Amino acid sequence: MSDIVELERRIVAALDRIGRGLDGLQRGDDPDRPDPSELEALREALETERGANAQLNERVKALHDRQETQVARLEQRVADLTARAEAAEADVDRLRAVNAKLRETSAALREANAQGLGDPGAIDAAMLAELEALTALRASDRAEIDAILAELMPVAEGGAAHA
Predict the structure, then answer these.
(1) Which residues form a coiled coil (predicted)?
(2) Whole-angstrom Cα distance, residue 82 to residue 75?
(3) Scanning 1, 61, 82, 94, which has the fewest C-beta atoms within 10 Å of its C-beta?
């Protein structure tokens, strides 16, 4: 019988503990349950971090857009400079060809003079070759001036904007 009394006492004690636990749960005394003020502080911290994250995302987007603009501008500048370099190279090739022709004509004219032959055709060809050389030289100089002006214009316009 003492076993039954002991078991009964243990069951009553367990039921009391269960009852106290249920009462505590109903009142909110759960030790695993977070404190409402702590929970609110965590929510505010989360919202603050979300705001900071949104600001950082906006900054990253702005930097990315600025970088895209600068890359496009630089690519355009490279294309322009490449076109100018190709044009300058074509002018140099033309100058070389005209100068070669001028040297040939001058050599023929010197040879005709050495033989005492005044060849009007050779003189005309030499004058024409020299005129072509001067025209090509002028075109080359003009292209170089245009390239220099193209580089200086943004600086001058920038200075006028800051004035």
Answers:
(1) 39-115
(2) 10
(3) 1
